[in-house]
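Q:
My hope is that you can spare some time for a protein that puzzles me. I hope you can help me see how the letters and the tokens relate. Thank you; the sequence and its tokens follow:
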Amino acid sequence: MSPDRGAGRRDRDRSRVEAILDLIYEGITDRVQILEELRRKERSRGLEIGINSEKRFKSLIEGTENISFVRPATDDEDRKGIDFVVYFSGSRYHQPVHVQVKSSKKSAREFRKNLRPDDRIIVVNAGPSATDEDIIRDFFEQLEEFDGYT
């Protein structure tokens, strides 16, 4: 049985309708005001998903063999699109690698399009649609592309 590709969109649509009904119930009936409040709630939800994706990635990768530690990006690194720097231990030493965590396959794909060939940034989808195995596999496959081994 294949997964229902429209389920996520239907869930989002259902959430939007419920949010609109809640606003109307609260007495907000002006269309512009409803749309502004809906956008504000969606931005807030997007931030929450992004933060949860970053926490999930860090937790998963830190628990992986040959990972020494994972640190958050500095402000300067963050401006360059980096969320974390991963440091390695063990017999197969890698240089530290920069990681950008995304919350969907689409946003990861779009971010990768803008990378230069010499950028050493791994882009991982750690959003709700990705399994733990997907996240770990994606990270190590990209690491192997950089260094030729994992």
In short: The chain is about 55% helix and 15% strand. The chain has a mean pLDDT of 87. Strands lie at 67-72, 84-88, 97-102, 121-125.
